[in-house]
Amino acid sequence: MNTGTEINGVVILEVIHGSRAFGLNEPDSDTDLKGVLVGPAAWYGGFLPSPEQIEMSKDYVRYDIRKCFRLASEANPTALELIWAPEDCIRVCTKAGRRILDARTTFLSRRVSDSFGNYAVSQLKRIKTHRRWLLSPPKVEPVRSAFGLPERSVISNDQIGAADILSRRGDITDEMITPNFLLMLDRERSYRAARREWQQYHTWKKERNPKRAELEERFGYDTKHALHLVRLLRMSLEILTTGIVVVRRPDREELLAIKGGGWPFERLIEYAESMQMRIKSAREESALPEEPDRAALNTLCTDIVREVLDGC
């Protein structure tokens, strides 16, 4: 391991992140790096804004220690995977960095069921959306006339937003809105949804990664997203039941088989739904606290910053 003072602060922890940390890398996989740094004293004592993170390259990000602590205490998967990285993935670890690693269980809480789960849900949503586009892509650009709408909208964005808020609250009454307005509002919503779908589809088609496109065409859905979906669901369940974040995946072979199209789409959906139910149950029974001890973590963060600045 190395240590060193950088122009933008002191790097106290730096790890290999992503597929190489998970043990899911292949010969052409990138090497992703994540770091934690303590910036200069002006970041913590002055009034000018300081950066929360520094993009060293597209594959390397350094977090200010305060952002790392905040994200990890919110059970952000990226931050937790950073501080739970396997020992052979740790490239820089100072005494201050080791204090973070020694306290990493303090960051854990039942919030992982939401954070890891939300990431998994977003993966599942992308998988379903891309599959829909593969099987039944939008063929005609939406136009207002096709939805029975005039060339120009008679309903403003503010009116649509206000109507949505009142609708969610259940505060809309027949006396407040005419039937014609409700009809036009419904048509406007449908048109705008179709328009978003059209634009998103063409953006996806234009910007999709060629390798991912090949997987989707070959297997009917994005199997790389499926790999991460399954990984996130399993990690969520593991953390809730064991209180440990297992970054280096013991199920490597099965996960890579999923990426290789080993699971049909229907099995993936069934598995995801089953795991979501198990995670919900595990959350209720977990020994983890509902929330982490933020006061203790704040004290630790403060002590580390002071310690590092005193040593500069």
Short description:
By secondary structure, this protein is of the alpha+beta class.
Folded structure, characterized:
The radius of gyration is 24 Å and the shape is globular. The N terminus is likely disordered. The protein has 312 residues and is an alpha+beta fold. The protein contains 13 helices and six strands. 56% of the residues lie in helices and 11% in strands. Helix 6 runs antiparallel to helix 10 and helix 10 runs parallel beside helix 12. Strands 1, 2, 3, 4, 5 and 6 form a six-stranded mixed β-sheet that branches. The longest helix has 29 residues.
Give the tags:
312 residues; alpha+beta
**Oligomeric organization of the protein chains:** single chain
Low-pLDDT ranges: 1-6
Distance between the termini: 19 Å
Strand content: 5-15%
What is the general shape? globular
H/E topology pattern: EEHEHEEHHEHHHHHHHHH
Cα-based radius of gyration, to the nearest Å: 24 Å
The helical percent reads 55-70%
Summarize the biggest pleated sheet: 6 strands, mixed
Mean pLDDT: 89
Give the number of helices: 13
